[in-house]
Design a protein that fits this description.
Blueprint: H1 16-23, H2 25-38, H3 40-48, H4 52-78, H5 84-89, H6 93-110, H7 114-118, H8 123-146, H9 148-152, H10 156-186, H11 190-194, H12 196-218, H13 226-233, H14 240-253, H15 258-289, H16 295-300, H17 305-319, H18 322-349, H19 353-376
Helix pairs in contact: 1-10, 1-12, 2-8, 2-10, 2-12, 2-15, 3-4, 3-15, 4-8, 6-8, 6-12, 10-12, 10-17
């Protein structure tokens, strides 16, 4: 089958529906990121029974493996047009398909208790291997998928349609992940309670895989015309050692850009704070506060409000720019933290009746002062 007749090389008009089809992959992308930050640690500690240190080691090791893999995988897909499989299925779409198939097996396997397969004593190794493989397959899907807008169109406005659809669908994925788990954890049936994570994993797998297959089939790549192939072939050919050295130089060169360093700092601190909070909150609510184990997922399901905020943010990004969005977001975060500290302090203050009485009297005096002070200066 020639590239001209192959669906993967057939450009189409980008409409809202095709934008949604492209963005469906981020149903998994957004869902997976929130499973990583908000579910896995709680699952490994509260359900599997691993010690927190071992659960953290699994997550940290898998992330490190993913970081190393991702460092080089983009370049592998870039040059895959030379391969017969790359020519037939597309240099991006081939690896997306491989990733989808691998993800289906590894992601579903993660929610199957290791003791049911290997017996007791194999939990750490099992979840480390399965989780690491899942991270690799997710990268294998997302890295080529994220390049597709530049393959599908040169029009900035059309790319905006694609990216906006992606952000909204990612927010929907986040909501569905927590809603499904909250729903299962709220069912009083003991069998459902015991296997809630397994049932949720089955639902998530079906949801993500169907969405990714639609996205894979409804997107396309830039046709491999003689001019485009010549452009790709004009890039210098490097062996592995040269490629590694060049890649490291390219990454290092980005740090010379002051704007990049600033944005990287914002990104690292923002997502590190978010992940730290999301990872520990479910375990803290159940183990420390003592609430029911469906409460964390009900609270996280409030991410549904993120769908609306994403739509608003997409509009503001176009009309007001990223600086305004940064200011708005961080002002909200700071006010939320001040409110949290104030609520906590007020709760501690009200623990005894004497403290509460003293607090009320102080408020009265402050109120009278604020009223009388302007009068005294008249």
């Amino acid at each position: 089958m020639s590239e001209k007749k192959n669906w993967v090389y057939q450009p189409k008009k980008i409409t809202v529906s095709r934008g949604i089809s492209y963005g469906l992959t981020d149903l998994m992308g957004g869902g997976w990121n929130n499973i990583v930050s908000g579910v896995i640690f709680a699952y490994l500690t509260l359900s599997v029974g691993l010690k927190p240190g071992l659960a953290g080691a699994i997550a940290g090791t898998a992330r490190l493996i993913d970081a190393i893999f991702s460092l080089f995988f983009g370049a592998i897909t870039d040059g895959f047009y030379k391969n017969a499989l790359g020519k037939k299925f597309g240099r991006r779409h081939f690896w997306m398909l491989v990733g989808i198939l691998g993800f289906t097996v590894s992601f579903l396997s993660f929610w199957v208790p290791a003791t049911a397969i290997f017996g007791p004593g194999h939990d750490f190794v099992y979840y480390l291997v399965v989780y690491s493989l899942t991270e690799i397959f997710v990268a294998m899907i997302l890295i080529p998928w994220e390049t597709l807008p530049t393959e599908m169109t040169d029009d900035y406005d059309k790319r905006t349609v694609l990216s906006s659809s992606r952000m909204v669908i990612s927010a929907i994925g986040t909501t569905l992940v927590f809603f499904i788990l909250a729903f299962l954890k709220s069912i009083p049936d003991p069998n459902v309670q015991k296997n809630a994570y397994l049932f949720a994993g089955i639902f998530w797998t079906i949801l993500f895989v169907v969405a990714m297959i639609v996205s894979w089939r409804k997107t396309w790549e830039r046709p491999l015309t003689a001019e485009f192939v010549a452009e790709l072939d004009a890039k210098p050919k490097l062996n592995f050692g040269q490629f590694l050295a060049q890649t490291m130089r390219d990454y290092a060169s980005t740090f010379r850009n002051a704007a990049f360093r600033k944005h990287l700092t914002v990104y690292i601190f923002s997502f590190t704070g978010k992940d730290f909070y999301a990872t520990l909150l479910p375990t803290f609510i159940v183990a420390a506060v003592g609430l029911k184990d469906n409460v964390p997922w009900l609270l996280n399901a409030l991410a549904a409000f993120g769908i609306l905020s994403t739509l608003i943010a997409a509009k503001l990004m176009i009309t007001r720019g990223p600086r305004y969005l940064f200011q708005l977001a961080y002002t909200g975060v700071i006010l939320s933290m001040v409110g949290y500290v104030g609520t906590r302090s007020f709760h501690k203050l009200c623990m005894t009746s004497s403290n509460l009485t003293s607090f009320i009297n102080d408020c009265k005096r402050l109120f009278l002062t604020l009223i009388l002070l302007p009068i005294c200066f008249k």
